[in-house]
Amino acid sequence: MSAGQGAAADPFVRLEGVSHVYGGAAALKAGTGTLAVDGLDITIGRGEFAAVVGPSGCGKSTLMKLATGLQFPVGGTVSVAGEPVTKPVKIAGMAFQAPNLLPWRTTLDNLMLPLEVVEPHRRRLRWNKAEYVDRAERLLASVGLAGFGDKFPWQLSGGMQMRAALCRALIHEPQLLMLDEPFGALDAFTREELWCVIRDLHQRTGITVVLVTHDLREAVFLADRIFVMSARPGRILVERTVGIARPRDLEITYTAGFQEIVHELRGHIVEARR
Amino acid sequence: MTATPVLIRFAPWIFTVGLFVIWEAVCRLFAIPPFFLPPPSLVFGAMVQFWRPLVDNSLVTLVTTLIGFLLAVGFGLLLGLAIGASRTVYAGVYPLMIGFNAIPKVAVVPILVLWFGIGAVPAVLTAFLISFFPIVVNVATGLATIEPELEDVLKALGASKLDIMRKVGIPRALPYFFGSLKIAITLAFVGSVISESVASNRGIGNLMLQAQALFQVPLVFAGLIALAVEGIVMYAAMAWLEKRTTGWAQRSGFGT
Ligand SMILES: Nc1ncnc2c1ncn2[C@@H]1O[C@H](COP(=O)(O)OP(=O)(O)OP(=O)(O)O)[C@@H](O)[C@H]1O
Ligand SMILES: [Mg+2]
Questions:
Q1: Residues of chain B where predicted confidence (pLDDT) is lower than 70
Q2: How many domains does chain B have?
């Protein structure tokens, strides 16, 4: 089993006493910026599946941006894989609620986009194209999109586009997968299908996953640990270890133990919104 | 009544012919004097009679317009890219552009004549000045509306500003750019004809002015029709180009 050992053993993503204001230091001094998160402490272990839930606007996306080096905190420290974050974290892959595939590229070429940007693939891509195409096709097959590589995004359903976006996040073999409400726009059945895709991926590769979601069932089904954030400025209110044995089947979402955790989390969120 | 595909196909021709028929009928029915509004039969007569000067001057206007238009494409593309890529350039240039666009271009023609004399140069420049604005605005819009999430995905991978422009911004701006060409080419015709009728001795604009002075009203209308035909042909050419180059945008309906 890859996960569940907790953060203490081998911390991978670590935010300590982090506060962040949009608009930079100037906005902070002038007091005009929004204090998005304040005193945020979170540690996620290597190979762990962490979920973050909290009221809307509490700073969940901000947490993702801080952990990937897209924003830098005004206070506190952020480190990933033991290194302080001072520039974008290239060992991370990201997917958001909108698949954001480029409509003028085929699905396969959309997957190749990160490789055209990130080193060392960028240098190697031209002469090792076949190898990378092979990798992309294997990845597509692993999410059930075998044979769809030459289709354009607008020829795919919403769920299929999301699968492709997941593949794009994974193509450069990141060690950290950041998912910000990735299934928010999908219907319930497609969403559960994709839960299983992510579950299997995590099981297979042992990748560290941080999932932001509004769906508490999703969080409990997928995560090893769930962090509940307070209303803005966000910090961690509650940390809940799920403790349901893996591999998990969709059926467990109907068990009493599962429902109990969902209820408990719901209570915390209601509290946080006050 | 259900519209059959055949009917839709021929609708443009039916409506065009219908317009001329009504025009002719109105002229005859109300016995409108031809020097006030000549019926289409007289206009077409004038077209046949004066086909040579009409064709010559149409070509002059076409060439003038195209040169001005091409200048606008080059300049508009560059400025649009600069504005779309840099906030500083955007903040600095945009108000100037709005102000400039608000100036009626007729008012600029006398200045151009002062600098370049009567002839083709003011006409080319007027066409250029009037048509570059929509190109700039569209290219800049295409660049400025990149989805922030997609930008984040690429930035997190270490993409430079240039990478993002090349991989996402420019391909994304292309449909906006080609879309703007349709508007720009029609505006370019307006520009060159304005200038020709004020400050040139060639071109359709000038021909119409002379015909008017000689009270050859059917010839004035013949000039108008020549302009309309040129405008439609160039518009169709730009629409075709747009379809050829950025078909994906029309099939996908953008960003879905
Ligand atoms: N680019 C930005 N510029 C200025 N303020 C921002 C920016 N992004 C977020 N904020 C502010 O920071 C706060 C936290 O935003 P964030 O996007 O992290 O919330 P969230 O928890 O992801 O919300 P949601 O659940 O609705 O996605 C909000 O109050 C928001 O107004
Ligand atoms: Mg968010």
A1: 1-3, 248-256
A2: 1
